[in-house]
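Please decode residue identities from the backbone states below.
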């Protein structure tokens, strides 16, 4: 049996590994000259930058792929738990260290803000409960197959769905739990982990702190791109064939059955076709004769990002691996993004410096800064003007909040923004995570991992169920594999 995978994003590589270990002949077609899609890297003048994801949770989902193939994960890939997840800097000059250990984290919040330690611990417990209720139903199985709802563990979860806190927003829930606005702001930020707005997204998203604070945030040896290189190496060793710089032009369908693809000017016939490309271009360009599910494709997209990769000719001991410089008016920042579809003057700035843990990512005495703000998806804004303004505002903000002069130390600069995210990864409107979750029904409005009418056609990756981010993309590959097994 032969399977073709369209796209070598993290979910595409994962599904290729899974199918190969079950005896399929697997070919992956990728338009770029490298694997990884958004999970890639940039090298410039002695600096190395992780281009996309920087925060790694649920590493067991990566390990599982090596174990499936009968290999020891640590022969390919290792990672360490971060003792400090993030350093938060507030405009009033206060700083909070988000320790990985829940007790230490709660103690820090109590010490720095006067927030009640028990309320913080209680909130992290609630986050864990939300995870326990939801993960079987929403993350690990197809929401679109009756069989999912017939299982005992799913039925048990389904009985508790009223406890999902879906009928108030995340901001409202955090506001009712905490007294100190800095603590509320810190917990509201988790909505951005899937490109959403805490003032619109349901409080169900308060599941996310559980992943970081109870299950742990990790850093792969060699940086985030090591996830891609390790899985790519495994896939190649297993015999998956990768065809780089080969764009897929069409999915071939005959009598409601996927027959293969058109790529590189020829037809490639296969029993299964799995698209890891964004679901919007998959329908619009690769399936031009198939009626698209307009309601799903027209959902609001998640936010995008503007990232400056700065090679800094200096080190900054006050900063850690992950640093957040908060906006003075968080609600206004999101209003600008979602209501005005623009960038405000005082965005929250995220600075990720992988050379803190992986010194070879920057020349001696230097650091590799990944400086990111959340921005709206691309709907035709004047990005050149917005980027130039944002650059000035970011520099001014970081210089004020760190008390350091930065501009003279920027030796190298590269930029990624919504238009280039779309051109490099085909992600519609440059969205980072497919659809936004600014809607309590968002989980049900993601495309299923299979086509309801075309046999042998499957979908994986951040734009389909269960959603964006590395862990969910890996789970989408697992769900596809399960669906193929059960068919
Ligand atoms: P993608 O990475 O979207 O790749 C799809 C691949 O398909 C691409 O390589 C593309 O070239 C290829 N392709 C598309 N169409 C075709 C075609 N017609 N023919 C051939 N090839 C095609 N996630 C986290 O977990 N933690 C984070 O900290 C985090 N931060 C992020 C920061 C940024 C700046 C970005 C961009 C993303 C971030 N994410 C993060 C999200 C995460 O990167 C994505 O959810 C995930 O990598 C998407 O993987 P995917 O499998 O959907 O494929």
């Amino acid at each position: 049996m032969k399977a073709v995978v369209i796209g070598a994003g993290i979910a595409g590589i994962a599904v290729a590994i899974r199918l190969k270990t079950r005896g399929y002949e697997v070919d992956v077609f990728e338009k770029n000259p490298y694997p990884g899609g958004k999970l890639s890297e940039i090298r410039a003048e002695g600096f190395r930058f992780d281009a996309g994801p920087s925060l790694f949770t649920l590493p067991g989902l990566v390990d599982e792929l090596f174990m499936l193939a009968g290999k020891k994960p640590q022969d390919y890939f290792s990672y360490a738990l971060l003792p400090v997840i993030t350093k938060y800097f507030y405009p009033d000059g206060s700083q909070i260290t988000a320790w990985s250990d829940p007790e230490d984290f709660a103690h820090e919040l109590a010490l720095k803000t006067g927030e009640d330690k028990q309320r913080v611990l209680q909130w992290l417990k609630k986050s864990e409960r939300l995870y326990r209720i939801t993960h079987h139903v929403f993350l690990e199985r197809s929401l679109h197959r009756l069989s999912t709802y017939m299982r005992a563990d799913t039925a048990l979860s389904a009985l508790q769905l009223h406890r999902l806190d879906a009928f108030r927003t995340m901001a409202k829930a955090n506001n009712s739990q905490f007294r100190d606005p800095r603590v509320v702001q810190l917990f509201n930020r988790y909505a951005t982990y899937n490109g959403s707005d805490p003032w619109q997204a349901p409080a169900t998203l308060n599941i996310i702190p559980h992943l970081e604070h109870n299950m742990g945030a990790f850093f792969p040896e060699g940086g985030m791109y090591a996830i891609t290189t390790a899985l790519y190496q495994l896939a190649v060793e297993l015999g998956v064939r990768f065809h780089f710089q080969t764009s897929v032009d069409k999915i071939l369908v005959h009598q409601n059955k996927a027959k293969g693809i058109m790529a590189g000017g020829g037809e490639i016939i296969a029993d299964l076709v799995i698209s890891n490309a964004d679901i919007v271009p998959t329908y619009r360009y690769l399936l031009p004769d198939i009626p698209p599910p307009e309601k799903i494709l027209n959902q609001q997209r998640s936010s995008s990002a503007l990232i400056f990769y700065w090679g800094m000719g200096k080190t900054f001991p006050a900063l850690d691996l992950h640093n957040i410089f908060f906006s003075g008016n968080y609600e206004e920042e999101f209003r600008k993004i979602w209501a005005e579809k623009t960038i405000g003057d005082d965005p929250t700035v995220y600075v990720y410096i992988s050379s803190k843990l992986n010194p070879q990512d920057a020349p001696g005495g230097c650091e590799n800064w990944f400086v990111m703000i959340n921005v709206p998806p691309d709907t035709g804004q004047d990005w050149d003007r917005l980027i130039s303004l944002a650059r000035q505002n970011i520099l001014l903000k970081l210089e004020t909040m760190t008390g350091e002069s930065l501009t003279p130390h920027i030796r190298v600069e590269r930029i990624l923004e919504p238009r280039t995210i779309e051109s490099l990864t085909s992600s519609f409107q440059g969205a980072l995570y497919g659809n936004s979750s600014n809607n309590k029904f968002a989980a049900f409005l993601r495309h299923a991992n299979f086509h309801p009418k075309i046999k042998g056609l499957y979908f994986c990756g951040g734009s389909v169920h269960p959603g964006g981010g590395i862990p969910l993309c890996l789970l989408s590959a697992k769900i596809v594999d399960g669906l193929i097994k059960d068919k």
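Observation: The chain has a mean pLDDT of 95.
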